[in-house]
Every structure is written in C-alpha cells, then in structure tokens.
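[Meeting: bench + compute handoff]

Bench side (C.D.) handed over the final construct sequence. Compute side (W.E.) agreed to return the predicted structure before the next meeting so the bench team could plan truncations. Sequence as handed over:
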Amino acid sequence: MIYSINGERCTSSSRLLVQDTIKEDFEAALVERVNKIKVGHPLDPATEVGPLVTREHFDKVTGYFDIARADGATIAAGGGRMGEEGFFVKPTLFTDATNDMRCAREEIFGPVLSVVRAPDYGDAVRMINEHEYGNGVAIFTRDGDAARDFADCIEVGMVGVNVPIPVPVAYHSFGGWKRSLFGDHSIYGPEGVHFYTRLKTVTTRWPAGIKSGAQFTFPTL
C-alpha cells in the first residue's frame, strides 16, 4: 500500500514508525521486499510501480535522495532512477530517519518510505500528534487495549487498526485534521450534504392585524 500508485496519492503511507526492539529484523525484511518490487510499464499486469506523472514531479521526488543523505538518513533500498527513458524511480527506503528530517516530515508523493525509530508506544503517539498533517494513520497490533487507546488519543482524521490504508467506505466521511483539511466539512459521507449544499436562511415575522392579500415588489435593473 505504501508503493501502490507510485505513492502519488494522499493515502499512500510515507512514514513508518517502528519500535526499537524489532527495528533491525523488521528493516531487513522490509529491504528484501522493497528490492523485489517490479517496476515497469503500467499496462503490464506484473508491474507494481510505474512511472511518475511528470518530469517536474520526477525531479522533485529524486531530489529527496540528496536531501535525505544530507540530513543523515540511509538509503537502504532504491534511491535512483530506473532505466534511461521515462520517469521511473526505484522503490526507495530511507532508514535511520528521525522525526525532524524533511524526508520524514514532508509528503514526497513518490515510491519512497522513511522508517523512523520509536523507543516505545508513547513516543510513537507523540510523534504522530506533533506532526502538522493529520490525514490518515494506522496501527498494527494484537493488543486490544493499545488499539483502543490509539484510536482515542491520536489526532488524525482517519484511523486504521490493522488496516494499511484507513480510508473508510464511501458512506462515511473522508478527510483529515490539521493541515490535511481544507474548509469546515468533508466532501464524502453525511458531511458531503453540507459541503455541496448552499444554505438560504429566510427570517419572517407576521404581526397581528396585517391585511390579507398579496403585494408584489420586483427589483429593477
């Protein structure tokens, strides 16, 4: 789900918080999987990642490779273009990233994932809540208490529990919090009625003694 549609959508995960105790083993397995992702023509059924949409976006995404290195992150997989033609980028994995690095704080909208170490559950929640964006987040756990606490405490508009992309079905509202929300209402679900409705308020008063009948006054140009 991280690399699907080349990471070019708002619901593609771009930052992964991993607990200290499993970080080494988890990253090794993740690097192995990322290196197996097939990059190719989008009409090929075997293709998992295709080209980016424009030259400008290709330059933006690949520009983060130098930014990440300069900030101290490690490119554990990918980190370059694929082939000599087209806007193909190797699925990329940044490790040794910290929460204040640009690769972990900014939405790259490409096949790029930053792995950030979280000492414990409390630190992971704090890092998420301190972020300026709040579109979607997911927790993977077998602990029901942790899942309930996460759903209650997290300051993000869409939350998944063991669901990689926490986008609800269409009859629920879709949208984030903080800088991930524009306006006052979501555009899907019940709130969509308000989003697409132009309200008119008419205030009237009928004092006693008004004569019956109708008098019309029309505006003039």
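W.E. noted at the follow-up: Residues 3 and 149 are 28 Å apart (CA to CA). C.D. will use this when planning the next construct.
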